[in-house]
Write a structure and sequence with these properties.
Family: Belongs to the replication factor A protein 1 family.
Keywords: DNA-binding, Metal-binding, Zinc, Zinc-finger
CATH architecture: Beta Barrel
CATH class: Mainly Beta
Strand content: 35-45%
Shape: globular
Low-confidence stretches: none
Distance between the termini: 46 Å
Oligomer: single chain
Mean pLDDT: 90
CATH topology: OB fold (Dihydrolipoamide Acetyltransferase, E2P)
Number of domains: 1
GO molecular function, one term: zinc ion binding
């Protein structure tokens, strides 16, 4: 019979920074370090599902990789005051999806969709 009465060890290792150009939909755990080049306004719109809002920010890493981070509704409210254009952030736990070309002019084929579990740190 197995019994563990000791404390649980946590992995407190610093995050491994992934270049934006290396991000792909198959990455499970990733963290990017990027400057918020732009921070869009909190845009409100109405569709068949009701009133919604969306926030986008274009990100640039030290290798020149660009990607857009987008969030909506409560997540947009959560991150709106946290993101400032020109500041550098560690961003992780977003969902990587194909870029929506009608709204996104950046070269990267993906966008980061931030969720309530996503983290943005200075």
């Amino acid at each position: 019979m197995y019994s563990n009465r000791g404390s649980v060890a946590r992995n407190e290792a610093p995050p491994r920074i992934v270049p934006i150009t290396a991000l792909n939909p198959y990455h499970g755990r990733w963290t990017i370090k990027a400057r918020a080049m732009t921070k869009g306004e909190l845009r409100h719109y109405n569709n068949t599902r009701g009133d919604s809002k969306v926030l986008s920010s274009d990100l640039l890493d030290c290798d020149g990789g660009e990607i857009r981070a987008t969030c909506s509704n409560q997540v947009a409210d959560q991150f709106y005051n946290q993101i400032e254009a020109g500041r550098i952030y560690l961003i992780s736990k977003g969902n990587l999806k194909p870029a929506q070309r009608n709204f996104n002019h950046l070269r990267h084929d993906l966008e980061i969709f931030l969720e309530s579990t996503s983290t943005i740190q200075l």
